[in-house]
Every structure is written in structure tokens, then in C-alpha cells.
TrEMBL record:
GO terms for molecular function: DNA binding; DNA-binding transcription factor activity. Keywords: DNA-binding. This is DNA-binding transcriptional regulator, MerR family. Residues 124-236 form the VOC domain. It comes from Micromonospora mirobrigensis. Pfam families: Glyoxalase_6, MerR_1. The lineage of its organism: Bacteria, Bacillati, Actinomycetota, Actinomycetes, Micromonosporales. Residues 6-76 form the HTH merR-type domain.
Amino acid sequence: MNTEHLLSIGGFAMLSGLSVTALRHYDEVGVLLPTWVDPATGYRRYRPEQVREARLIRVLRRLEMPVESIRQVVQDPSGPPAVALLGEHRSYLARRAEALAELAREAERYVKEGVGMPALKGSRIVQVTVNATDRDALVAFYRSAFAATFNEEIGSFEFGTWPSQEFFLLTIADDRHPGPTGPARFGLLVEDVDSAHQLALDAGAAEIYPPVERPWKPRSSCVADPSGNHIDLYQG
């Protein structure tokens, strides 16, 4: 191949705004492949025409779009699948913004009133561990369905903050945190059970039963996450 007009990875990084490390990663995961790789040295080279695609990837990553979604968008940025993915991600960002705004309000209360918790009376569940058949898919599901924040360091989703009465951990089983022998089941109190139920289905959950009124508990529904764990949703 004539490589005279190809860009080195360093030059391509400067033009695209992506780091050399990022370009190597996107090659490894199949998002942005170099035009030519030197079989002797492994050096990557790119066509100048690929700069536009790389800049699009940079924008999508700034929006924190998952790599798998980026891969689909760059294949046909104007196509219906790309538009749908962008719409879904916009909705996720909006829910996350609402969650962050609530955290900001909570921080403001701490500034004014000091950090503290009411004396605990009785007991309540603050952690549930679930198994995962596909860890990445499960993380993506809870992020999309419930705008949950995943703390990689502790392998858990954090609902609410510590110290507060809303504090709750949903832990994904691993070597450090063994899970149950089968699928888990737990409940979440939500602002609007019908909306939360539909968001969960849109994010990839399977419906166990739709929102229903029962005389002995709040309006509720049940879905299963991508790993088969059951989530009961209760109207708050």
C-alpha cells in the first residue's frame, strides 16, 4: 500500500482531538480502525478523511455515550438507528441531570444544616447483591432505567448518598462480593411506578407483571433485569 499520504497516529491525534491512547483503544474495540498498520512495527496510519469520523467520536464520548452505541452511530450518523440511540441517550442524560440536581440540593441542605442523620429506629435494608450474566449489560441497564450511579471501586450502584436516609447499595456479585445461588429479588420505591416501569422495559427489562393496584400495598409492578433478577417497583 502507498502510505505517502497517510497520517501517523500522532498527527491524526492532533487533528482529531483524540489522544493516541484513545485511538489505540478505539482500534482494539472496532470503533475506529486505522487504514494501515505496519506489520513490522505495528504503527497505525490513517486517511485524512477519517478525521471527521474521529471528531464525531470525540463529541459522542464527551456526551458519555457508551462505546457500543458510538460504534452504531458512526456507521450511519443520519440513519434511524443512530437517531434513536441519540434520543435514548438524551433521555438518560436528562434523568441523570435530575438526579445530580437532587444531590446538589442535598449538599446545600448539608451546608446550611450540617451533615448528620436522624437516630436510626429499627432496621432497614441498605444493600442487595445480585448476580450478573453480563456485567457490562447490567451496568448499562441500571444506568439507563434508573439513572443510577455505578461506583466501580466498590462494584455497586449508589442510590442516595451517605449519610442520608436514602442511602442504598445495589452490588453486582464478583469475587469480592459473592452473590446468591440464583437470581435475586428486591424492591424500589419510585416517584411514578407507571413511568419507571416503562423506562425499565425500554432499557431492556422483561415484564413480570404490569402496574397494578392491590389492597395491601402501594400500586406496584415487577420487571426482570437482563440477568434475570426481579425488581419490584412501588409507587412512592
